[in-house]
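Go through this:
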Amino acid sequence: MKNDQQPQNEIEDQDYDLNFYDLLEGITDRIDAISQRIEEHKQDSRQRWQRTKGEVDEQKRLLKIQLEKRVQILSENLKKPDFIRTRDKITFTVGVANTCFSPLIAGQWPHLLPIVYTIQALFLITLRFFIYKHKHWHYFIYDLCYYANLLTLIYIWILPTSEILFSVCYTLAHGPLAVAIILWRNSLVFHSFDKVTSIFIHMYPPLTMFTLRWLVPIEHQIKHYPAIINVGSTLPVGRTILYTILFYSVWQALYFIFIVYGRREKVQSGSRVTSYTWLLNDKKGFVARLVDKVGFAESDNEINIYKVLFYFLLQFAYMLISILPVCLWYYQYKYINAIFLCSVFAVSVYNGASFYIEVFSRQYIKSLELLQGWENPGADKSSSSTHQSSKTESHKIDEQNKKTS
């Protein structure tokens, strides 16, 4: 009996084991099938993605070609004499209107002048940055004049209660910024967007600070610019000079770190132009001639660290000398302040008149003749000499723009 039951139990165990392994095998097959479907789906998705990516890349390529064609067409249209004349007429009109209406606003609605200044500063400086970046001149934007404009905007809209910032803005605006118009021969050339922007950067901050100091009613000063009331009728000479030196030193340190040291390879290679390399390479300029006399000049005209440090020392001395009259006279006496601003503006007008008579009248005609020659390839061979002289004159104008900006 025992022997009969034992084989029966073994058979049942074998059936049980067989069924269990069959179950495992079925589950494994199912998992393999699912994995295969997932892999097929992945491959299908990958193929679709490759097709979609290829289509997108092709569309991007076509759009890029179309954009380049449109930019080329636009560039060609911008070089046409008719467009140049229209552009310069508009720039001239806007420049004259701004010159006329700014004093009117300062006299009749002085509380609006900071708003007018802010709108123009944001537009002109931003546009100049992109224009200069295209020409690889954008390191000029890090110069002291732009730093002073930034401080002025910060005082007007963020820290109007700061006596220190007000004093620094007043001295920098009436000192280095305004005097630079005389030293660097900034010209009020109404048809030139670049020269008008340069005049704005150097002239509008002192005009704005003058308006806030002398023309804005006291009630408006108390409410919106309390620092003016707190400073009083005189600037503390010692403290004002100290604060100005501190703010100036911050800018100079940042400029040295990010431009002189941080971008030294690009500057030394000549791929980027800065204010100090331009002045140190200008052999006819005062700075370069003074460097030669001191003995820092080298045969290969390399701009070494000693030249740069000497240039910074000269710039610091210029800043210090230019702010002394601000602390002693301009801030305390309204009419002396007004005479100074009018004199600086008159110098810019005289420089502009000299530019129109001595340079522009010849260069403008040659430029239009050159462009007309490009439009008419069958013109006589005299256009070749015109082309060369116009290129030379245009190069001089571009360099003058860099120097006076």
